[in-house]
Amino acid sequence: MEKSNTPNNYAAAIAVFEVKYLMLKILDRYLLKKFLGTFGFVVLILVSIVCVIDFTEKNDDFLEHQLGAGEILAYYLDYIPYLASLITPITVFIAVVFVTSKLANNTEIVAILSGGVSFRRLLLPYFIGSSLIAVASFFLNGWVIPNANKDRIAFEQTYIKSPFYFDDRDIHMKVAPELYAYMESYNNSNNVGYRFTLEQIQGNQMLQKLSARRIEWDSTQLKWTLKNWTLHQFDGEDETISNGVSLDTTLNISPDDFGSTYGLFETLTIPELNRYIAQQQERGANDIPVYLVEKYIRYMSPFTAIILTFIGVVMSAKKSRGGSGFQIALGFMIAFVFIIFFIFARSIAEVNSMDPMLAVWLPNIIFTAVGIFLYRIIRR
């Protein structure tokens, strides 16, 4: 009676599976190492080039203010993370195109696919690498880099930019649910406002109106002082008028509200950004779209890295007659198109011509469709 060879076949199948699993782990580590290593190298090169150009442009300002090497170095230590984060989606794309086109032209991609690895499985290490970059980018952009930007923006305002003068006129603010403030003008050099009024309105009825020729900020008590003030109080058809020379008051307004907004959205962490947007919405400010766009970009940008990684692999995995140089050049062109499209969409959103969330996500939606289209038509 013959013995069954089923156990032997089962053991052989397990052995084949283990060998294949080991090969895939080696392949994943190999591709992931190449991808992340190239990404880091591209970021280092581009950041170095931009920093050299930036230093050349700002050197006259550094010399004018007689800044020491330590102060300049501290500025660039804050500037480099901001710059690296800004170019991350594009550098991910360039790194993917460079690595994949090199593999394709060395016929490594062909060998991998011929060994029984599907193209979808080949995408896994790229997806892992881009996801790691995306998660790190989200936390850096949401919390770490805004805190570094506080020092960077302050440095630029002090030593690079021209002095700021608040020149808006006829300033309207909603400072509480029923309180509306108005100033004809404000001088930010001495923190004095002119022709100030504060109105309390309930429904369609004005309950009181406080007017003053000037309003001054008391930096010691952190309060406002009204000069030559008059208070009108209304009770139905009855009106009570009182006045005085000086009156201290606490308002939900500070001199910071009249300061420079240069780079302000870059200095706010995600929780701070949410609070600022809520405050501006309560006041009825007209610059809310700028901050909404910044908020949505911080959530959108990590997905951009993943989408561009997918496009980069799909378009570079096939060996090209033009060599890897052609594919890298094509990669730069697609990256350039994405940047132009993103800037255009952001500009439209900031002038409130389109819903900010839709405008921010539109480049990702379109390039996702482009990636799926390329995946279906490019033969591998």
What are the main properties of this structure?
single chain, 380 residues, alpha+beta, 2 domains, six-stranded antiparallel sheet, 9 helices, elongated
Explain the overall architecture.
The protein is an alpha+beta fold and 380 residues long. The protein folds into two domains: 7-161 and 291-377, no CATH class; 169-259, no CATH class. The chain is built from nine helices and six strands. It has helices at 6-64, 69-86, 88-105, 108-114, 119-159, 270-283, 288-316, 323-350, 356-377; strands at residues 169-176, 179-187, 192-202, 205-218, 223-235, 238-249. The protein has a six-stranded antiparallel β-sheet, with no helix packed on it. β1 (169-176) and β2 form a beta hairpin. α1 crosses α3 (88-105) and α3 (88-105) runs parallel beside α7 (288-316). The longest helix has 59 residues, at 6-64.
**Strand arrangement, largest sheet?**
1-2-3-4-5-6
Overall shape: it is elongated
- Percent of residues in beta strands: 15-25%
Structural class: alpha+beta
The overall average pLDDT, rounded, is 90
Q: Please outline the major beta sheet.
A: 6 strands, antiparallel
Helical content band = 55-70%
Which spans have pLDDT < 50 for at least 5 consecutive residues? none
- Number of domains in the coordinates? 2
H and E order: HHHHHEEEEEEHHHH
Distance between the amino and carboxyl termini: 51 Å
Q: What is the β-strand count?
A: 6
Radius of gyration: 30 Å
Tally the helices: what do you get?
9
